Amino acid sequence: MISIKSTFVNFNHIFQSKKKIKSDPKEINLFSKINNNITNNTKLTMLYEQLIQGLKSWEYNPFVQTEQEIIYKFQSMFLYYDLYNELNINVDRLYEFLIMVKDSYHKNPYHNLIHAFDVTQTLFCYLANMKMDQYFSKFEIFVLLISSLSHDLSHPGVSNNFLIQTSNELAKQYNQISVLENHHISTMYKLLHKSKVISHFTPKQKKLFKYLSSNAIFATDLCNHNSIVERLQSKLNSDQCNIWSSLADKSLLIDVLVHTCDISNVAKPFQVSKEWTMLISNEFIQQAHMEKKIGIPLSYNFDDHDSTNSEEILKKSAVNSVNFINTFCEPLLQLISRAFPETTPVLDYIEINKLNWYEIIE
Ligand SMILES: [Zn+2]
């Protein structure tokens, strides 16, 4: 039986090596308390619950944790859904997988481990706080957590279009279709295979995992946004709109959730949302530098000289964020709130963020 205590004892060394990137005093305090109370079950449970409350929150700040803490928090989500016991997942194998995931994410401004974990934590909030977990089996929750954390694995920090325009090896390998997403899926399977996390699954379970997780990661290609919205719309217009039991329905709901979480940072509290927006702008500017150098058309509204003008970057970022909200995020979140009313409060954040961005644009 995998318990809170046994998991924490296993990862005790995480707390010993405290290489802080950025530190939130409250968080450090919580981790050192857990470390000191590893032998005291009651205190440990209380601290674990405190951690889970934080992870359930829409207002969670993803910028104040070390990479090791991210691994530890992912383990806590597994524990919350009792996935070790329910699916017979080996603690050490999962840990090995998570270390490889951490190492596979590049240090890009935006597409990095923190973004991957942010998507996973947002998913956890939808599941555990907004009660979306009632629609899924433990196996499907496992698929959701692993797919979210893996959805940008080994991302090179440039877009699909850039890879195609520059005839990158990956673009050739995947026939120019969802190039990055194919790469993320393939990397995820390699890491799962190496760490043997799902090696004990039956052939049927393995097939199902592959089907649901690859669909979920393909759903994060923005090119597939309209088709996801159309699929969701037609499901909600059907007389089966409240029933999510068939494999097709489950797959649709998994795709919708992973895609939504991937684009949800524009709907987070403004300071968090603004930080994400500036990070993606940095990555766009890096790409603009490369495009200018190679002599291909610029993909975004950033030029390489923008990197020296912070006022200009902020204004362009504000315009991009509002456009992104209006085109992708808001219509999708409105549709989701129609089907799942518990998610409705998220829409308020979007309205506040738009007002904040308008002030910057004017
Ligand atoms: Zn992503």
TrEMBL record:
Keywords tagged on the record: Hydrolase, Metal-binding
GO molecular function: 3',5'-cyclic-nucleotide phosphodiesterase activity; metal ion binding
Name of a matching Pfam family: PDEase_I
Keyword Hydrolase in record: yes
Domain of life assignment: Eukaryota
Positions of the PDEase domain: 34-362
CDD domains in the cross-refs: HDc (cd00077)
Residues that hold Zn(2+) 1 according to the record: H115, H151, D152, D262
Biological processes, Gene Ontology terms: signal transduction
Residues that hold Zn(2+) 2 according to the record: D152
UniProt-annotated catalytic positions: H111 (proton donor)
Name of the protein described by the UniProt record: cAMP phosphodiesterase
